Amino acid sequence: MKINQERLWTRLHELSQFGKQEKGGVTRFSFTEEERKAKDLVISYMKEAGMMVQEDAAGNVIGRKKGKNEASPAVLIGSHIDSVPKGGIFDGPLGVIAGIEVVQTMNESDVETEHPVEVIAFTDEEGSRFGFGMIGSRALAGTLQSEHLQQSDQDGMTIAQAMAKAGLNPECIAEAARNPETVKAYVELHIEQGKVLEYAGHPAGIVTGIAGPLWTRWTIKGEAGHAGATPMNQRKDALMAALNVIQYIEEETKKYPNAVATVGQIDVKPGGVNVIPGETTFTLDLRDIDESVRDEVEAKIISYAQAFCEGQGMEIEVDTLQRVAPAPCSDEIRAVMEEACRAMGIDLYSLPSGAGHDGMQFNEFCPIGMIFVRSKNGISHNPNEWSSKEDCGIGTSILYNTVLHLAK
């Protein structure tokens, strides 16, 4: 069955208008007016596709297609519509719009399934606003705790406060949790965000597993002082100490073939042109498909940083923002995806995901599967992020055949 590629493409670009930046890219954080407008558009698409729609206690938008046996567990299709600062239009939204297209194609073709099919636009996958991601998928999986809602953004507003401002009740967050018995499987379509498929010449690929992100915030406390009156050998410069640790992070991580480390934020206090930095805070995003390897790298970095700062007479604190275990994809779902590719005449190609995705929250909840679509030049989290209309259509067609098999 052919999906409507033009409709898919049009909706992707319509959705990109909310949070669109003058100089390119999309900035659409969770619990904002831009996100609300985007959610409302997604809801309209779901209703047009013939789904019943609800918004749960976490702000997840859920569209449901009834199954012949409504009591049977549902097949979930999910992704997110929030973005990083000045991000692209495909990361997240493609998976949501593709899921809606799958259901709409079924309904237009009078295709009935034994199991219900649900499409979910999850709240805050990226974590860009609060430094804590996958809020909606954690809530649905039942792993989001009330203390997580005390994470705050750069303006000091907590997740709980932002939820309340958006009309949600943070005290009811537990109501978003699903009973695992009501879910048969979870599948997600996403752009690759890397160059593997492009280099291999494949429009789409089947994901073998998702690397687990470990986010930490590091604070080094030295001593502020006069930039002109303090000799170099008498300084406790917190920024220079941080740069030394960051350099070690770069060198140590390169020793491991699948490990990646990113320092994405740095804050220097007091921040004067003529003042020696007395405190420096930076974030570290550390990932590997193997949890033991990731944790080994983390331990080496912490050990080095503590020894270095102690030798310089400085203090160091490391706070864990999130620690997510890597998630292997289901062999059974991968086999279904492989069969879908064969039926479409698409060469099989498998690859791991270095990026984290909502699906990893369901690893111990239900079987999960992921499909990647080729990314031009491997660019993502960037206004130049791009996947072709044809590749998006191919990925959505694989998703359609996969969901059809799982739901029937």
Notes on the protein architecture:
Helix 1 packs antiparallel against helix 3 (93-108). The chain has helices at 5-15, 33-48, 93-108, 135-141, 159-165, 196-200, 238-253, 291-311, 331-344, 389-407; strands at 52-55, 61-65, 74-80, 117-122, 183-191, 204-210, 212-221, 225-226, 260-262, 266-269, 275-276, 279-288, 315-323, 327-328, 350-353, 368-373. The strands form 3 sheets. Strands 1, 2, 3, 4, 5, 6, 14, 15 and 16 form a 9-stranded mixed β-sheet that branches. The longest helix has 21 residues, at 291-311. 49% of the residues are buried. The protein has 408 residues and is of the alpha+beta class. It has 2 domains: 5-211 and 327-407, 3-Layer(aba) Sandwich (Aminopeptidase), CATH 3.40.630.10; 212-323, Alpha-Beta Plaits, CATH 3.30.70.360. The mean pLDDT is 96. The chain is globular, with a radius of gyration of 22 Å. It is 32% helix and 22% strand.
Query: How would you classify the helix and strand content by structural class?
Result: alpha+beta
CATH level 1 name of the largest domain: Alpha Beta
Order of helices and strands: HHEEEHEHHEHEEEHEEEEHEEHEEH
Task: Provide a count of the helices.
Answer: 10
Quickly count the domains.
Answer: 2
State the end-to-end distance. Answer: 15 Å
Taken as a percent bin, the fraction of beta residues is: 15-25%
Helical percentage: 25-40%
By CATH, the topology of the largest domain is Aminopeptidase
